[in-house]
Amino acid sequence: MPLTVSTRTLPAVASGEPSHAAAPVVLLHGFASDGDTDFAASGLAEAIAASGRDAIVVDLPGHGSGGSIGPDEDASTGAVVRAIREALPRTGAIDVVAYSLGARLAWALAAAEPRVQRLVLGGLSPFEPFAGVDVAALGRVLDGEPAPDPMLGMMAAMVGAPGRDSASLLRLIDGLASAPFDPAQDVPAVPVLFVAGDADPMTTGIDGVAAGVARGQLVRVPGDHLGALASPEFRRAVLDFLA
């Protein structure tokens, strides 16, 4: 059974009236989060709708209302990107705003989906964050064993938080790590805005990634990995780029 994502759309509103003149904006959230947490709670989805664009808020597989990931399902980047494409409007151009894991997936989505016309990649890690995760050991920590190192302890806290589909998230980590992210591959040909928190260690080296994208630009905003996404500066940078 293929992976599934769920979507909900905030309709575009311009001057108090519905508007559908501009391409919709697809919002892809980070790992162990969901579309509402990353984009509705921050006000970004509503701001995009208020600017006259449909905001399509995605819940990725294993997250929020996205479908669970079964033990025998392919959870690689390619499989997740296929699931995202299946959930998108069938015709017309789209813009994509993505954060953290969502940014990693949006990079691949732009290579697979010619209708993507612009990308905002926030909190993108130039390295593969899941490549060094021992999924079996992480599972044992979730079952109650002491964490052997701080990294696994942090991951266990994320994956095992109340309401999370821990089994699906473990399978997703394993699937994504099977084909590590490489910013030298599938370099986007469309305009790309990179947004990074000025205190976010996850984005160390993003300057080099942005320099390797012909139509790329980098903006720094205040905050660490979580704080940058919630900042008004992030929202303003996104809206200005999309406009």
- The proportion of strand residues reads 15-25%
How many β-strand runs?
A: 9
What is the number of helical segments per DSSP (H or I, 4+ residues)? Answer: 10
Span of the ends, CA to CA: 39 Å
Poorly predicted ranges: none
Radius of gyration: 17 Å
Specify the structural class: alpha/beta
Primary descriptors:
single chain; 243 residues; alpha/beta; 7-stranded mixed beta sheet
Model description:
The protein has 243 residues and is of the alpha/beta class. Helices cover 37% and strands 18% of the residues. The protein has ten helices and nine strands. Strands 1-5-4-6-7-8-9 form a seven-stranded mixed sheet, with helices on both faces. Strands 2-3 form a two-stranded antiparallel sheet. Helix 8 links the parallel strand 8 and strand 9. Helix 5 packs across helix 6 and helix 5 runs antiparallel to helix 7. The chain is globular, with a radius of gyration of 17 Å.
Give the helix/strand layout.
Layout: E1 6-10, E2 13-14, E3 17-18, E4 25-28, H1 35-40, H2 44-50, E5 55-59, H3 77-87, E6 94-99, H4 101-112, E7 116-122, H5 135-142, H6 150-159, H7 166-177, E8 192-197, H8 206-211, E9 216-221, H9 225-230, H10 232-242
Parallel strand pairs: 4-5, 4-6, 6-7, 7-8, 8-9
Antiparallel strand pairs: 1-5, 2-3
Helix pairs in contact: 3-4, 5-6, 5-7
